[in-house]
Amino acid sequence: MSFVVEEREVLKDSDVTTTASIKKSTQPTKAYDPSYDPLVDKTPGQGRDYAPTYWVDSAGEPPADDGPIDSDVDVDVVIIGSGYTGLTTAIHLAENYGIKATVLEANRASWGCSTRNGGQAQCASGRLKRSQWIERWGVDTALKMHEECLDGMETFKNLIKDIDCDPQTGGHLYVAHRSKVMPTLEKEAKLLRTTFNYDAQILDADTVKRDFVGDNEAAGAMHEPEGIGIHAGKLAFGYLKKARALGATVHPSSPVIGWETRNGIHHIRTPGGIVRARSVGVATGGYTSQGLHSQLKNRLLPILSNSMVTRPLSNAEIEACNFKTNQVITDTRILRHYYRLLPDNRVQIGTRSAITGKDAPDSKYAQMLKNDLARKFPALKGIDVDYSWWGWVDVSHDMMPRVYQPNSSETIYYAMGYGGNGVMYSAQAGKRLAQWIAGEGTQLDLPIFQSKLPFPNIREVVESEAFAPFRRLGQNFLYRWYHLKDEVL
Fold this sequence. Notes:
It is a single chain. It is globular, with a radius of gyration of 22 Å. It has helices spanning 54-57, 84-97, 130-137, 139-160, 182-194, 205-211, 232-245, 315-321, 363-376, 422-437, 459-462, 468-487; strands spanning 73-80, 102-104, 120-122, 172-175, 201-204, 220-224, 227-229, 249-251, 258-262, 265-270, 273-282, 300-310, 328-331, 338-341, 347-352, 385-396, 402-404, 412-416. The strands form 3 sheets. Strands 1, 2, 8, 9, 10, 11, 17 and 18 form an 8-stranded mixed sheet that branches. Strands 5-6-4-13-14-15-12-16 form an 8-stranded mixed sheet, sandwiched between helices. A two-stranded antiparallel sheet has the order 3-7. It has 3 domains: 13-118 and 233-299 and 398-456, FAD/NAD(P)-binding domain (3-Layer(bba) Sandwich), CATH 3.50.50.60; 167-228 and 302-395, D-Amino Acid Oxidase, Chain A, domain 2; 457-489. It has 12 helices and 18 strands. The chain is α/β, with parallel strands linked by helices. Helix 2 (84-97) packs parallel to helix 7. A hairpin with a 2-residue loop joins strand 9 (258-262) and strand 10. Helix content is 29%, strand content 20%.
């Protein structure tokens, strides 16, 4: 199967004209599966519909794609996963190296994390703070990691400048949910200013509630200058249009159901045919099934995040909540909340969800999030919720992502493990993954580019198939401990 590309130029969304625009979005053949669990299910399915998110419902008609793989084909580069990382990798490969990638997706384009997240682009690449970077790697490496994040923000801004994804700029407000957190927050802000030359400012509770948002829990906050809220669905669809305009092909309903490497060529088997590729980039995030490839098995702990969007708030409700900012907001809980006022005056909020996929549809998790919203904003108690969903987050076992070639003798590369900070960093990871695929990865000198995603400490046990339930038991214990630390101790 081949496609002729003529006069493809990336302009504004409304101005992009391609020969492939004649095609239409591949329609789903199966309903959305609310209980999919990457630790249990062998594949994410095939041809399943999107999760019922606000982002998909309000993003407009999904853009055209290139249809499922329907015959054997030879290509230079295959990208597995059509989310933010996979699509930005394809964009960077085309723009920087003239490589037109073939992107495979099990279900609909950007079906996983990219249409289920909170739309918060923050200046972070994993779950660790700058002070923890210093503890782990020392000041010099931490400073380089910070520069990588700043460069990532610029990469992200450049990518979205011609994508209509409703950007809400102004920075990030990190709200202390208890007064006992403030000393730690003040210490981190000072470190950011003095060591990293990053203008993080401490705000007292009165300032937060008067000038930013009337979060009833706010005991103060740290404001950092970098942070952008975006419409997650519009961003995903914009990336898809841009990647195809540059010559990449994107094939939904094409899950990887087999993978062999013979004589340096990867034989990627899909239901419609075998894709033979010289190089493979894996960008499956929290939806990475255990059987995809041995280099990825047990390298991530996927966790569920619950999210909801209210009906539009009235002017009186906005005033009662004192929403004076549209900046992205998170709180200081370990099991953090992320929230903001959207451009159409709805409130979006998210936090942890169930532990297993089979428990995810239980209504108690949506009710917990409603209760959390009411605790922060009493005026919104009982407000109608128009959208409620959940999705898997790719958390690495050391809380930092990797963009890496795990075996120097194989042309396999991956980018994942963002730990909930993938909206921005996926754009940078796509750039770095493209570098690896193009043969420039050895020039990357940061720890996240020089080592594999780690196993848990008890590696010899974790590698057993039978250990998955025990990982969930451990996660349940940790959630209980984190709740105690967040709310009681």
